[in-house]
Structure formats: C-alpha cells, structure tokens
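Ticket #4471: structure export looks truncated?
Reporter: QA, pipeline team
Priority: medium

Steps to reproduce: submit the single chain below to the structure queue and open the exported record.
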Amino acid sequence: MTKTAVCIYHFLLFSWYIFINHYISQKGKTQLGSKVFQDGGRWKYLTILNLLLQKIFFGVACLDDVLKRITRRKTIKFVTAFRDLLFSTLAFPVSTFIFLAFWSIFLYNRELIYPKAIEGVFPAWLNHAMHTTILPFSLGEIILRPHHYPSRKTGLTVLAIGGLAYIGRVLWLYVETGTWVYPVFAQLSPFGLAVFFSLSYLLMAVIYLLGEKLNHWKWGDRMQPPKKRK
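Actual output as written to the record:
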C-alpha cells in the first residue's frame, strides 16, 4: 500500500475515534447516560479509556505521516519513536485484550459485562465500535506500517504499569463508592479478583509478544535496530 493510502487510513481512523469519543460524551449527558457513568464517570471503563488511547495513537500516527511528507525524512525521531512505543506496548495489547475478554464474558453471560439495561446508552452499533472493530483496526496497523518494538523488558514493564494503574483505579472506585466498575467483579472473591487480574496481565503479555511476532513476520528484520560493532 502506498504511503498516501496509509496516511488516509490513519486520518480516517483518527476521525472515527474522535467521533466515537464525542458521541459517548454526549450520551453521558442524557438521564440514562448519567446513571451509567455515575460513580467514576465514563473513564472508569477500560473500553472507553481504550477509545481515547486509540484516538491519541492514530492522532500521533497522522502527525508522523504529515511531518515525514513535509520534511521528506524516513523518521521524525521523538514522534516516530513515541508512535511505535504507544502502539506496541498499549494500543495493540489493550484493544486485543478488550476484544477477547469482552466477547468471552458476553457469550458466557452478557449481564456480567454488558447488561441489556445499558443498551439505551450503548446501542448495538456502538457496542461493536467499542469491542469488535478495534481488533481489525489494530491488525491493519501491523500489516500497513512496520513498528520498532522496544526490548521485551521495557515493553512488558510499560504494559504492567498501565495495568496496575487501571487496577488501582478500579479498587479505589470500589472503596469510594461501594460499587464495582463491572458486574463480573462482584461475583468474585478477593482471591478470585487477584487471579482474574493476574491472568488478565498474563494474557496481555502474550498479546504483546504476539504483536511483536506479527510485526517481525510481516516486516522481518527491517525494523530491528542495527547491531553495534565490537
């Protein structure tokens, strides 16, 4: 695919996520939306945080595309490096995790993750925008654009910090409001929660490694940093 087509792809997805984030913010102003988003606001949901993450990533990708065309350079140092770090450690692992976790729980018992009562705020098309299309969009990014992956230690550390930050927020909201962000958490014991959060991180770590493998499979050693001479 040409560079122009990739630029258009990034711009379209950036615009799409701007629209989705704005649409949800407006839904939060309705009577039903205010009830769904009470006790923590819309940012208590990992899904909505991911939509913001995707908007930021594709915005950075657009900026990187534009600067490269203006300067005629292959990389824009900080911008390109930040784009690659953001995608490899957060944008791809989080979106893939949400897709797998949401639909697994939904198929088991939708009331634990997406109760029918909230369909007035999140209709079917929006549900798919939040939980389904995020995966093919992320896979498309791997196919269309090579990315420098950091060392595994750095990548998994950034992923762990992000995971711990969200878990900390979930627990803090429960202590403050007495209500769990997701109904499924109310069905688990403290030990069960610890196991769930641990397995969730392990799954995201596997997804991170999968992204690294897919990037290498598609682009080979093209994006590997040059080895230092002895």
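Status: closed, not a bug. The export was complete when the record was re-opened. Leaving a note from the reviewer for reference: Residues 55 and 68 are 20 Å apart (CA to CA).
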